[in-house]
Amino acid sequence: QEKGTYPETVAVMLWGLDAIKTKGESLGILLELVGAEPVKEGTGRIVRYELISLDHMDHPRIDVLANLSGIFRDSFVNVLELLDDLFLRAAEADEPEEQNFIRKHAQALKAQGVENASARLFSNPAGDYGSLVNDRVVDSNWESSEELGNTWCDRNAYSYGRQDKGQARPEILQTLLKSTDQIVQQIDSVEYGLTDIQEYYANTGALKQAAEQRRGQRVTANFVESFSKDTTPRKLDDLLRMEYRTKLLNPKWAEAMAAQGSGGAYEISQRMTAILGWAGTTHFKDQWVYDQAAETYAFDADMAEKLRKANPEAFRNIVGRLIEANGRGLWTPDEDTVDKLQALYEAAENTLEGVTT
Questions:
Q1: Of 157, 207, 268, nearest to 11 (Cα)?
Q2: Angstrom distance (rounded) from CA 72 to CA 21
Q3: Could you tell me if 196 and 234 are in contact, meaning their C-beta atoms sit under 8 angstroms apart?
Q4: What's phi and psi for 41, nearest 5 deg?
Q5: How far apart are CA 350 and CA 332, in angstroms?
Q6: Secondary structure of 139-157 as H, E, C letters
Q7: Which end is more exposed in the chain, N or C (fewer Cβ atoms within 10 Å of the end residue's Cβ)?
Q8: Across the chain, where does the E strand assignment appear?
Q9: What does the alpha-carbon distance between residue 243 and residue 275 come to, in Å, rounded to a whole number?
Q10: CB distance 57 to 35 below 8 Å
Q11: Which H or E run includes 293?
């Protein structure tokens, strides 16, 4: 509807706990894109994902880059084998390539001599977890968004299925990223959203960055809220703005966190780190978020004192992230604001080091 054409590849995030809590809604998204439905035996156990005839579909078979969390990868080996079998049959189906993008891409990979050209299930190395993108953001160990995208690629180039148990297949991952028009993720919780957990930007945000680097154009990221009756895919930037308004920059939320003491200050600090994570991976740079965060947590004397007393390390991180955002060109406050932040940071450092002034 937005672009007037169907995407050739959609990246679908498959996270373990979300899949468990929603009884597989993310899998439902994947199956609908591919054009398949589960086949059950008499006991109700799913034994196969059967391709739906193109005559009974209202869209082509969309290719899928399935990004598996470590929990999904390790908990649902049977599902991975069924999905791997599905992608192989889709790649070999006697269908026109303009109606079957899985076949189109697999044929191109085969022509290049690539093995297992229908591999579509990618995750971290076997027995390992996480993209490490959040580690780089937390440690301020990155110079460019491209580095974060490349880190995600290096960590997620491992294929899983019936024969692959963590086989490195970077050439297939790179090919899929080049054709990825859209990313979709199902969200199951109102308690924890995109700005609450570092893994969201470290995986979904970094995948978006990786795809954009290889496509040379923007890639849409959408989220489907399973806790709502409205399943309209929501745009990333709109969700980020809503979460910043309703949580981090909401006076009631801020006061409630501050009232919790050390733990509440830590939660605020974590979300300030996530702001830079989203900016680094998706180029989200709305200035009002940084402006209001500075006013709420650094320049409000009462709030700053509460946070400093409750958790001096968290307060230092809050101020430090604002300074870092300015240094990276993500936020452009006036010189007076930067000077105030520097003074607050130095005072926080002195507090932690036991220096009295």
A1: 207
A2: 12
A3: no
A4: -85, -175
A5: 26
A6: CCCCCCHHHHHHHHHHHCC
A7: N
A8: 9-14, 36-40, 46-51, 63-68, 121-123, 158-160, 165-168, 180-187, 220-225, 234-235
A9: 11
A10: yes
A11: helix 287-293
3-state secondary structure of 263: helix
Average predicted confidence (pLDDT) for the chain: 96
Cβ–Cβ under 8 Å, residues 101 and 65: no
CA distances in angstroms from 1 to 4, 5, 6, 7, 244, listed in the order given: 6, 8, 9, 11, 28
Rounded to an integer, what distance in angstroms lies between the CA atom of residue 73 and that of residue 40?
22
Summarised one tens digit per residue, pLDDT across range 238-276 is 999 999 999 999 999 999 999 999 999 999 999 999 999
Residue with tokens 């910043």: 244
Evaluate whether 83 touches 66 at the Cβ level (below 8 Å).
yes
Backbone φ/ψ region at 45: left (φ over 0), alpha (ψ -120 to 50), beta = beta
**What is the DSSP secondary structure assignment for residue 196, as one 8-state letter?**
T
Which token pair is 49?
A: 């994902």
CA 259 to chain centre: 30
Cα dihedral 102, 23, 182, 330 in deg (nearest 10): -150
Q: What is the token pair recorded at 127?
A: 């027995």
Taking 90 as the threshold, does the pLDDT of residue 192 lie above it? no
pLDDT for 5-27, tens place per residue? 999 999 999 999 999 999 999 99
Tell me the C-alpha distance between 170 and 133, whole Å.
Answer: 18
**Joined tokens for residue 116:** 């297992």
Alpha carbon distances (Å) from 57 to 9, 100, 120, 282: 17, 12, 22, 33
Q: Which pair of tokens denotes residue 356?
A: 């009295």
pTM: 0.95
Sign of CA dihedral 337, 341, 346, 348: positive
Q: Is 44 or 189 the better-scoring residue by pLDDT? A: 44
Residue found by looking up tokens 């740079």 in the block: 285
Q: Which pLDDT tens digit goes with each residue over 151-181?
A: 999 999 999 999 999 999 999 999 999 999 9
